[in-house]
Design brief:
Blueprint lengths: L8 H7 L11 E5 L4 H13 L4 E5 L7 E2 L2 E2 L1
Parallel strand pairs: 1-2
Antiparallel strand pairs: 3-4
């Protein structure tokens, strides 16, 4: 086993043909992060993919606060 690896992740990696490598973290890009849909995605993505790396883009230079996190 691999310490710190989520249960089933190694089996998933084997089925995906990546034997011996760990799954990479999800990376998501949100275009229009300060708009209505972008703000909703900021709520949904961490629930769907905990630990996902986010890249946010918007035409306005402003901070967005979602669930106590400031972007």
């Amino acid at each position: 086993g691999c310490p710190g690896l989520a249960p089933g992740a190694l089996a998933f990696a084997r089925r995906a043909g990546t034997r011996g490598t760990l799954p990479r973290a999800m990376r998501a890009c949100i275009l229009g992060a300060t708009g209505l849909v972008g703000r909703e995605l900021l709520h949904l993505i961490p629930r769907a993919w905990p630990g996902a790396q986010l890249a946010l883009f918007a035409s306005r230079d402003q901070d967005v606060e979602v669930d106590g996190r400031r972007f």
